[in-house]
Amino acid sequence: MTVIMDGKKVAAHLSEEIKQALEVSESHGIKPKVAFVRIGDLSDSISYENAAVKRFEKLGMDTEQYHFPEDVSTKVFLTKFREINEDYSIHGILLLQPLPKHIPMKRVAEIMNSFKDIDGMKASNLGKVLTNDPDRLEPCTPAAVMNMLDFYDIDLKGKNVTVVGASAVVGKPLSLLMMNREATVTTCNLYTENLVDKCKDADVIVSAAGAINLIDAEHVKEGAIVVDVGINFTEEGKMVGDVNYEAVKDKASFITPVPGGIGAITTTVLAYHLVKATEHQKEPVLFLEK
């Protein structure tokens, strides 16, 4: 019988860990605070920010929001961003993307303290994924996938894994995280020839390519674990993933739905990363507060 992996259950479990960690921080007089930084008014960014703010505040964390007009000058934005980064009362920063074309992402990332980078966007944090450094703050979507697999006691050691999608924020870091668990990983993309051949013998398939029905029954062997990271919308406005869920669910041993799967975990992972970020900064913060 197929197990439907429930993102809300995973988020609830992770929330309990967060609450316990918050009690420890607050016993030291430290209440974690996150800064949300957004340029412009893209609807997707606003929706994500609002959902994240709601989640952080529900967990008892402080939030601060910084909004800039679309045409803010590079100088003005970078100056203010540097001030936010140097504010010792702020333990984590979430920069909403994409940025306007005139704001250089590389310069923004260079300013940010790696221990405040709760979405793992800095090259230094991505490098820590490569070296399996426990101090890393990896991108939240790959972290959400790993939390899902851990919650359902899925051991990747020795497994053949196919990751479809090779972006710098999902596919590539996720492939590395899985390799760090001693899985054998094949990474594909939308242009991979004979994708069925790359998937049909995999023990685990993760699709993060952003294409409706990219993964169908022919891609999935009996008993495979299928994780759908894709977020797409049909012409009718219905949210769906990359996987043809109805065609695949009876072949899989475990499968994530869309919605209600990985997407239900990501904002909670960001909150967990804020806890980690605060822990990294605890000693210098305590010192400065004396």
TrEMBL record:
Gene3D superfamilies: Leucine Dehydrogenase, chain A, domain 1, NAD(P)-binding Rossmann-like Domain
Catalytic activity: (6R)-5,10-methenyltetrahydrofolate + H2O = (6R)-10-formyltetrahydrofolate + H(+); (6R)-5,10-methylene-5,6,7,8-tetrahydrofolate + NADP(+) = (6R)-5,10-methenyltetrahydrofolate + NADPH
Pathway(s) where this gene product acts: One-carbon metabolism; tetrahydrofolate interconversion
InterPro entries named among the record's database cross-references: Aminoacid_DH-like_N_sf, NAD(P)-bd_dom_sf, THF_DH/CycHdrlase, THF_DH/CycHdrlase_cat_dom, THF_DH/CycHdrlase_NAD-bd_dom
EC number: 1.5.1.5, 3.5.4.9
SUPFAM superfamilies recorded: Aminoacid dehydrogenase-like, N-terminal domain, NAD(P)-binding Rossmann-fold domains
List of residues binding NADP(+): G165, A166, S167, I231
UniProt-listed CDD domains: NAD_bind_m-THF_DH_Cyclohyd
Coiled-coil intervals: none
Domain Tetrahydrofolate dehydrogenase/cyclohydrolase NAD(P)-binding: 139-281
GO molecular function, one term: methenyltetrahydrofolate cyclohydrolase activity
GO annotations of cellular component type: cytosol
Keyword Cell division: no
Pfam families: THF_DHG_CYH, THF_DHG_CYH_C
Protein origin, superkingdom: Bacteria
Subunit structure: Homodimer.
Family listed: Belongs to the tetrahydrofolate dehydrogenase/cyclohydrolase family.
Protein name according to UniProt: Bifunctional protein FolD
UniProt organism field: Jeotgalicoccus coquinae
Lineage summary: Bacteria, Bacillati, Bacillota, Bacilli, Bacillales
Gene name per UniProt: folD_2
